[in-house]
Design goal:
There is one protein chain. α3 packs across α4. The strands form eleven sheets. The protein has an eight-stranded mixed β-sheet with strand order 38-39-41-40-42-43-44-45, with helices on both faces. Strands 15, 16, 17, 20 and 21 form a five-stranded antiparallel β-sheet that branches. It is an alpha+beta fold. The chain has a domain at 519-524 and 571-741: Alpha/Beta hydrolase fold, catalytic domain (Rossmann fold, 3-Layer(aba) Sandwich), CATH 3.40.50.1820. The two termini are 53 Å apart.
C-alpha cells in the first residue's frame, strides 16, 4: 500500500534496508529505462509501413516551390497562398490577400468556388514581377493585378488554351489552342490568332511526342517571347510522314485506341521549322534551314539574342555527332554559323548560351571528355576554356552584374555530388572558388545579382536542410529541416557508401544498405538496383529514405545500388563507353561487380538478384540473357530491341539500324532470348506510350519459342511508371522467394 504525508511520497516497508533497496531501484530505473527503451520500443519494418495503408511519412520532405521576386525578396508557395520573404530581415508576409483577390474575381462574375481556387494559386499563368495573374472563365480571359485588385477582361477566347505565358511587359498573354499560337492583348482588349496552318499532324508552338520526350525534357511548350514583348519565336512540327503507333485500352468493354506519331529508330522524323511572328500579327518569318537535309536534321534548341535582335539556335544531325550554333537576325536575312561542336561520340544539348556585353558568349561543351564552360568570341574564331579538369559543370547558375565572374554547379570535389562554385571570367582557366562548403548535394537558387543564395542541401547520411546564404556562402539563417529516419521506433538497416570495381580496373561508388545486425561471418543474398542509362547516375551523395531497401535489409538481404561506368556521371567520356553498343560495356561492369561479390565471405553467391525500370528494365533483361551471374531479376517496362524505341534518344547512342546493324544486334535482348538464365519477371503497363508494350510482348514470344520459362505481369491501365500496391506486393514477394525468404512472402 502506498501512503503520503506532507513531506511527499514514501513507501511502507518492513525494514529500512528494504526501503533503501526500493529507493535505489527507483533511482536507477530512469537510467536503465532510457538505455533499454529504444531497443525495446523498436518495431519491425513491415510492407504495410513502407508500401501499404500504414505508410510511414518518415525521412521525407515535400518539395517547396520558391522563386526570387527581385534581388532581395523571394516567393514561396504554401497551402494557403504565396508567402513573400525579405532576405535581409527575414520578415514574412502574404504576397497578396487571397480573400481580396477572390472578391475582385467574384465581382466580375467568377463563381465563388472558382474565384477562391484561382486566388489560392490555380492560375492559367502568373507573372510575379508584374503582380499579374490570369484566369480562364469560359470564353473570358481575366487578368488580375494582385496588389491593386484591378481586373481586365478579354472575351472570345478559344477553347482549351494551354502553355500560356505572360509577355515580359505583362500586357499580353500568349498560348496555344488547337495547335495554333494565339495572343491576348490586354491593352487593346483583343484576342488574336498568330498561326493558321495547323492540322492533326501539324503543330505550331506545341511539341510533338518525340521532341516533347527527348528535346524539351517532357515539356510541350515550343515557343518563346522576345525580351521586348514584341514577337514570338516558335517551332512548327509536321508529323505527316511520321508513322503512327497505336495503343489499345484492354480494360474497357468497348475497345478504345490511342494513336500517336512515334518515329522509331531509322524511321522518318518530324519535319521542323523555326519561325518568328509579331504579336500584332502578319506574315511569319521562317528561319532558313535549307542547308540541312530535312531527314538528317534535328533542331534541338532556340532562344532570343539580347535586345530581341534575332535568334540563336542549334542544329544537329540525326546521330547527334555534331552541333552547330547558328545566329539569325530578326528579319531572317542574315545568318551565320558561330561554331560547330564535336566530341568523340555524341554531342549533348548544352542549353541556353549566355551572351556577354563584348559580343562573346558562354556555352558548355563536352569536347574534352568532361562538361565544361567555354567562351566563344563574337566572330566564332576563338573558343577558350573557362573551366577545365577531371570534373564536370552541371549547370551555369548565374552571371555577376559586372560579368567578371560566373556561378556554376559542379562536381569538382565529388563525382557524386554537386556544389556551388564561383569562376573568374577575367582571364583563362582559373581555380574555381567553392561557395557551399558542406559535403553532399547542393541545389542552389541564386538571387538576381548573386547577393543571396537559397540552398537545399543534403548528403547520404544527412536529411535535407534549406538555408539562406550570403553571396560568399556564409549561412545567414536556416529555413527548413528535413526529418531523419525514426530509428528509435523502427529497425532500419545501415547505409554505407562503398567503392565497387569495374571491368577496366576503375571503381565507381555504390550505396549499400546492410541488415540491422549485419555480421561478416554470415552469408547474405544480395539484391542489386540500377538504371544504367548513359550519364544517368543513381548513386548520389544526397538524402533518400530508401524505405524499400531498408525493408529488404530487415529480411537479411543486402541491397546495393550501383552505376556502371557509362551511367556513373563521372564524365562524358565514361558515358561514351556505351556508344553504338548499349548494354555491352554495362554488362562487363556488372560481371566485375558479381566477381567481386563472389569473393566476399558474407555473400550467398547463389542468390544475387537485379532489378530496374525503363532503361534499368532493359539492362536487367539484357544481363540475364548475356551472363549467368544473376539468379533472379525484375525487368520493368524494358526496351528489348532498340529498333522499337524513338529516333532522337536511340540514334544519339546507337546511330540508325542501317548504319550500325551489328550494334543493334549485339544490344538486343530478343535476339538473345534463347540464352536466358535465371528467374526473370517481366512487368509492363499496357498503356505505356513511351516504351511500348510490344517490347515485352516480342520478348515473351521469343522466350516461348525458345522454351524458356519466365514470369509476366501486365497492368492494363498503367503507363510507363507503374505505381500501385499490387506492383509493390508483386515485386516484394518475388524478391523474397528468389532470395530464399519464403517465410516473409505476403499473403495474397
Amino acid at each position: 500500500m502506498m501512503m503520503t504525508d506532507d513531506k511527499g511520497w514514501h513507501f511502507k516497508a518492513r525494514g529500512w534496508w528494504q526501503q533503501v533497496t526500493v529507493l535505489w531501484r527507483l533511482l536507477l530505473l530512469p537510467a536503465l529505462f532510457s538505455a533499454v527503451q529504444p531497443l525495446q520500443a523498436q518495431q519491425p519494418l513491415t510492407w504495410e509501413l513502407v508500401h501499404g495503408r500504414e505508410r510511414l511519412d518518415a525521412g521525407t520532405r515535400r518539395p517547396v516551390q520558391r522563386q526570387w521576386l527581385d534581388e532581395q525578396r523571394w516567393l514561396q508557395k504554401t497551402s494557403s497562398g504565396w508567402l513573400l520573404t525579405d532576405a535581409a530581415t527575414g520578415t514574412e508576409q502574404p504576397w497578396y490577400d487571397v480573400s481580396k483577390v477572390a472578391g475582385a474575381l467574384q465581382a466580375v462574375g467568377l463563381a465563388a468556388a472558382d474565384a477562391e481556387r484561382a486566388a489560392g494559386g490555380d492560375w492559367l499563368a502568373l507573372l510575379p514581377q508584374r503582380d499579374a495573374a490570369a484566369v480562364l472563365a469560359g470564353e473570358r480571359l481575366l487578368k488580375v493585378q494582385l496588389q491593386s485588385l484591378t481586373v481586365e477582361e478579354i472575351r472570345g477566347v478559344p477553347k482549351n488554351p494551354e502553355l500560356a505565358e505572360f509577355s515580359p511587359s505583362g500586357e499580353q498573354l500568349a498560348f496555344v489552342s488547337g495547335n495554333e499560337l494565339w495572343v491576348a492583348d490586354f491593352v487593346g482588349g483583343t484576342c488574336r490568332q498568330l498561326t493558321s496552318d495547323a492540322s492533326g499532324a501539324v503543330r505550331n508552338g506545341k511539341a510533338d511526342w518525340v521532341y516533347f520526350e527527348e528535346v524539351y525534357d517532357r515539356n510541350w511548350k515550343a515557343w518563346k517571347w522576345s525580351p521586348d514583348s514584341s514577337a514570338i519565336a516558335f517551332m512548327q512540327f509536321d508529323d505527316t510522314a511520321v508513322p503512327l503507333f497505336r495503343i489499345s485500352d484492354h480494360a474497357a468493354v468497348q475497345q478504345t485506341i490511342e494513336s500517336e506519331h512515334y518515329p522509331k529508330a531509322g524511321e522518318t522524323n518530324p519535319l521542323v521549322k523555326l519561325g518568328l511572328v509579331a504579336v500584332t500579327g502578319g506574315p511569319i518569318t521562317w528561319v532558313d534551314t535549307g542547308s540541312f537535309d530535312p531527314q538528317d536534321f534535328i533542331l534541338t534548341h532556340f532562344c532570343w539574342q539580347p535586345g530581341s535582335d534575332g535568334l540563336c539556335w542549334y542544329a544537329q544531325n540525326r546521330s547527334q555527332t555534331w552541333l552547330d550554333v547558328i545566329l539569325t537576325d530578326r528579319q531572317g536575312v542574315s545568318q551565320r554559323r558561330l561554331l560547330r561542336d564535336q566530341t568523340a561520340a555524341w554531342v549533348d544539348n548544352p542549353g541556353d548560351p549566355i551572351f556577354l556585353r563584348d559580343g562573346s558568349l558562354l556555352i558548355c561543351s563536352e569536347r574534352s571528355g568532361y562538361r565544361h564552360v567555354y567562351r566563344v568570341s563574337a566572330d566564332g574564331s576563338n573558343m577558350q576554356a573557362v573551366t577545365a579538369g577531371s570534373w564536370e559543370v552541371r549547370a551555369v547558375q548565374g552571371l555577376a552584374d559586372d560579368q567578371a565572374s560566373l556561378l556554376i554547379s559542379a562536381t569538382k570535389d565529388s563525382p557524386i555530388a554537386e556544389s556551388l562554385y564561383r569562376v573568374s571570367l577575367t582571364g583563362g582557366v582559373t581555380e574555381p572558388e567553392r561557395v557551399t562548403s558542406e559535403p553532399g548535394q547542393h541545389n542552389v537558387l541564386p538571387a538576381p545579382g548573386g547577393k543571396w543564395l537559397l540552398d537545399d542541401h543534403s548528403s547520404l547520411q544527412r536529411p535535407p536542410q534549406t538555408v539562406l546564404r550570403s553571396g560568399d556562402g556564409a549561412v545567414v539563417r536556416v529555413l527548413a529541416e528535413g526529418q531523419s529516419l525514426p530509428r528509435d521506433k523502427y529497425r532500419f538497416g545501415t547505409v554505407e557508401l562503398r567503392p565497387l570495381p569495374m571491368a577496366d580496373g576503375s571503381e565507381t561508388s555504390a550505396i549499400f544498405v546492410l541488415p540491422p545486425d549485419f555480421r561478416p561471418d554470415r552469408r547474405y543474398p544480395v539484391w542489386l538496383r540500377t538504371y544504367a542509362g548513359p550519364h544517368r547516375p543513381q548513386v548520389r551523395d544526397l538524402w533518400n529514405p530508401r524505405l524499400a531497401d531498408h525493408l529488404l535489409a530487415t529480411q537479411d538481404i543486402v541491397v546495393i545500388t550501383f552505376d556502371p561506368r557509362s551511367a556513373s556521371g563521372y564524365s562524358a567520356a565514361s558515358a561514351w563507353k556505351a556508344w553504338r553498343q548499349l548494354g555491352v560495356e554495362e554488362t562487363r561492369d556488372l560481371v566485375a561487380v558479381c566477381d567481386w561479390l563472389q569473393q566476399q565471405t558474407w555473400v550467398d553467391t547463389s542468390r544475387i538478384g537485379l532489378s530496374g525500370h525503363s532503361y534499368g528494365g532493359y539492362f536487367t533483361a539484357y544481363a540475364m540473357t548475356h551472363t549467368d551471374r544473376i539468379a533472379a531479376g525484375i525487368a520493368g517496362a524494358p526496351v528489348t530491341d532498340w529498333r522499337h524505341y524513338d529516333t532522337i534518344y536511340t540514334e544519339r547512342f546507337m546511330g540508325t539500324p542501317a548504319d550500325n546493324p551489328d550494334g543493334y544486334r549485339k544490344s538486343s535482348v530478343t535476339e538473345a532470348a534463347a540464352a536466358l538464365r535465371g528467374r526473370l519477371l517481366l512487368v509492363h503497363g499496357m498503356l505505356d506510350d513511351n516504351v511500348h508494350p510490344e517490347n515485352t510482348l516480342e520478348l515473351v514470344h521469343r522466350l516461348q519459342q525458345s522454351e524458356k520459362q519466365f514470369e509476366l505481369m501486365l497492368y492494363p491501365t498503367a503507363r510507363h511508371p507503374i505505381v500501385n500496391s499490387h506492383y509493390s506486393r508483386l515485386t516484394y514477394n518475388f524478391i523474397m522467394q528468389a532470395m530464399g525468404r519464403p517465410q516473409a512472402v505476403l499473403a495474397e
